Amino acid sequence: YQRRVHGVKKKKKKKGKETTRQGHLNKRKKQVSKSTNVYHKLLIKLYEFMNRRVESKFNAKVLRRLKHTRAHRNQITVCDIQKSLDKVDKLDHIAVVVGPVIADRKLMRVRRGLKICALHFSQHAREKIERHGGQCITFDQLAILSPDGKKCQLLKGSYNGEKKKHHGTPGSAGSHAKPYVRAKGKNFEKARGRRASRGYKVKA
Predict the structure, then answer these.
(1) Buried b (16+ CB within 10 A) or exposed e, 98-117
(2) What is the reported pLDDT for 145?
(3) CB 65 within 8 A of CB 87
(4) How many Cα atoms sit within 13 Å of 156 on the Cβ side?
(5) What are phi and psi of 119, to 5 degrees?
(6) Helix (H, G, I), strand (E, B) or coil at 159
(7) What is the DSSP letter of 50?
(8) What does the pLDDT look like over 73-101, one tens digit per residue?
(9) Which of helix, strand or coil describes residue 3?
(10) What is the 3-state secondary structure (H, E, C) of 122-150?
């Protein structure tokens, strides 16, 4: 659609897209990790190099997850890793977790020869894996064993943990966010706010 204003053609601007001088605004990904851990920084450098030199999407995914905050590097149990590998029938593959691996007391037996690569292993998890002939691999060892990510299964833990219960505004209408308080007694954050216990009609 074009209209003439004093003999000059003027194009009508499209609505709904925010533009800048560089073009359309894209979703930004985390570029830099704020970790002070020297080993973690070296791993990021290693996988930046691997991502440039090796044609594989696996290295790009690992690099992106290495740059995540600690809150998004979720822990996973040995039991969950075993179940995930069972589902896809890839028990001979290396399970890769960009985060900590912890032990599960419910799991009495671990499959023999289980190979797991992770940033950190709890003491009980390491003992269980190695007792049953498994291997606990670091990411620099994984870069030598499988630089292109072949025979590797990338896994991550659930984000529905305690920290997610606090997301939102506690006390507001329709919110079920958990407040950061020591107890639910009458002396702990009970004096303020429009809520049912103070004679207000609050929408559920």
Answers:
(1) bbbbbbbeeeeebeeebbbb
(2) 94
(3) no
(4) 15
(5) -75, -35
(6) coil
(7) H
(8) 999 999 999 989 988 888 889 999 999 99
(9) strand
(10) CHHHHHHHHHCCCEEECHHHHHHHCCCCC
Please give the biggest Cα pair distance in the chain: 85
Q: Report the candidate in 98, 52, 62, 100 with the shortest Cα–Cα distance to residue 78.
A: 100
Q: Which two tokens stand for residue 88?
A: 């896809």
Which residues on adjacent β-strands are paired with residue 116? 95, 136
User: Other C-beta atoms within 10 Å of 96: how many?
Assistant: 24
N-term to C-term CA, the chain: 48
Tokens (6 digits) for 169: 């505004």
Tokens of 84: 């995930």
Other beta carbons less than 10 A from residue 63's beta carbon = 18
Three-state SS string across 15-49, please? CCCCEECCEECCCCCCCCCCCCCHHHHHHHHHHHH
pTM: predicted TM-score of the whole model, two decimal places: 0.71
Tokens 């920290």 — which residue?
163
| Residue 49 one-letter amino acid | F
